[in-house]
Design goal:
The protein contains nine helices and eleven strands. It is α+β, with helices and mostly antiparallel strands and 226 residues long.
């Protein structure tokens, strides 16, 4: 992307984000001035848990994973992020360090909105403050559901839900980085247990596992199972 294209691209990216969609032209321009674009390679760390928060991030293209690492070195993937997703807002508005590590799964372009500009804007625009509250409440609800899944549902049930969430039509496309180890980390388990869960769903003719995709054969049955 050429330097001349960056201002318009920044405008388009920010305007599509719920936090900024209600801002007037002058306010949006002030955010654009505090926004920078960066490109990360696959496996490059974008945010490191515990480090000071630099600002809000918006994913333009590519895929990322949000994870926490246990004392034993085991990784728990909290979320995968795709184009248009916003991340690290919680740290921006709560004066906390980065709450998780974010890593690029493939080459990814990201826009960083500096924290100081966002805090100033928050004081001047009540509509932004209301949107922040709504977004943070939604994040808390997501984390509550995650804890519920990890503590109360079997791996098989968690897998069924994940497949439904990721399905495009009747299939889940398996990206190059979507290894069974990555999927197991997302479900809070290990690859061997995940393999058994996949086999069980396949034996029940709920899914068919192929090299580059997982076909959902009986969505209604999965819904009941989940």
């Amino acid at each position: 992307m050429s330097d001349s294209e960056l201002p318009q691209k920044a405008h388009d990216i920010l305007k599509a984000v719920s936090y900024f969609s209600g801002l007037d032209a002058a306010a949006l321009t002030s955010v654009e001035r505090a926004t920078f674009r960066r490109v990360y390679d696959a496996e490059q760390v974008i945010l490191l848990e515990g480090e000071p928060c630099s600002g809000m991030h918006i994913l333009e293209n590519g895929w990322l994973k949000v994870s926490k690492i246990g004392m034993d070195g085991r990784e728990q993937i909290l979320q995968t992020l795709g184009p248009g997703d916003v991340f690290n807002a919680l740290s921006v508005f709560t004066d906390a360090p980065n709450q998780a590590t974010v890593t690029a799964l493939e080459t990814s372009a990201i826009w960083l909105v500096q924290r100081a500009a966002l805090l100033k804007l928050l004081e001047e625009h009540p509509s932004l403050a209301r949107q922040v509250i709504r977004e943070l409440a939604g994040r808390v609800q997501y984390l509550i559901r995650l804890v519920e899944d990890l503590s109360l549902r079997s791996v098989e049930a968690r897998l069924a839900r994940l497949l439904l969430e990721q399905a495009e039509g009747a299939s889940v496309q398996r990206r190059q980085w979507a290894t069974q180890a990555e999927m197991a980390s997302r479900l809070g388990t290990v690859p061997d247990v995940l393999n058994r869960a996949l086999r069980k769903l396949a034996e029940k003719e709920m899914i068919r596992v192929e090299r580059h995709q997982i076909q959902i054969l009986d969505k209604g049955f999965i819904l009941e199972h989940e």
